[in-house]
Amino acid sequence: MGKVVLYSSVSVDGFIADEHDQPGPLFDWLTGGDVPLDDSGALKVSQASYDHTRPYWDAIGTTVVGRHVFDLTDGWDGKPPSGIDHVVVVTHRPPPEGWDPAAPFHFVDGVEAAVAKARELAGDRIVEVAAGDVGGQVLAAGLVDEVRMDVVPVVFGSGKRFFGSVDAQHLLEDPDVVVRGNRVLHLRYRVRR
């Protein structure tokens, strides 16, 4: 089985979006370089960010998101983002009316069931869990193997927290990856068991 990774870009004070669900400059690093990150040509990063991010993206088999993110993105029009094979949506509600049942999206009730479904779909590839409330719940359930964050030099002051509403201490190992890109610091921590 592949590992479960909690991931997002984040402000230095720990927020993945402002109070209005806007990311502000959190993704500016994705357009602030000269090395194309994907085939679209829209994403261009520094060489250091490319060397760190591209192999990670290529290893992702399934992404787990909450219904809130799914609704904010309009379900990415039924096409998983960044070339990912499947998206598992944690929700208590059914798919939206008119949703194409053939789209590679799976609607699952509860984080444990969502991670189990994502692992089944990903095989030996990475299960990426979007940071925020669902990510915090997956961490609290003891299902996260690794935390990755792209720390952007901005202070939000308030908004949507990287770890959601986690209310207990969780120890991480020392960072085993620290990569400086343009306007971003890429960090990776293993979760202490």
Question: What's the SSE blueprint?
Answer:
Elements: E1 4-11, E2 15-17, E3 35-36, E4 44-45, H1 47-59, E5 60-66, H2 67-72, E6 86-90, E7 105-108, H3 111-122, E8 126-130, H4 133-140, E9 146-152, E10 160-161, E11 177-181, E12 184-190
Parallel strand pairs: 1-8, 1-9, 5-6, 5-8, 6-7
Antiparallel strand pairs: 2-10, 3-4, 9-12, 11-12
Q: What do you see in this structure?
A:
- The protein has 193 residues and is of the alpha/beta class.
- It has a single domain, classed as Dihydrofolate Reductase, subunit A (3-Layer(aba) Sandwich).
- The protein has four helices and twelve strands.
- Strands 7-6-5-8-1-9-12-11 form an eight-stranded mixed β-sheet, with helices on both faces. Strands 2-10 form a two-stranded antiparallel sheet.
What strand order characterises the main sheet?
A: 7-6-5-8-1-9-12-11
CATH architectural designation: 3-Layer(aba) Sandwich
* CATH fold category name: Dihydrofolate Reductase, subunit A
As a percent range, the share of helical residues equals 10-25%
CATH fourth-tier homologous superfamily: Dihydrofolate Reductase, subunit A
- Point out poorly predicted stretches: none
User: What share of residues are in beta strands?
Assistant: 25-35%
**If you compute it from the alpha carbons, what radius of gyration comes out, rounded to the nearest whole angstrom?**
16 Å
Number of DSSP helices?
4
The ordered string of helix (H) and strand (E) elements is: EEEEHEHEEHEHEEEE
Q: In whole angstroms, how far apart are the ends?
A: 17 Å
Describe the biggest sheet?
Answer: 8 strands, mixed
Number of domains: 1
CATH class value: Alpha Beta
Number of strands: 12
Query: Would you tell me the overall average pLDDT?
Result: 95
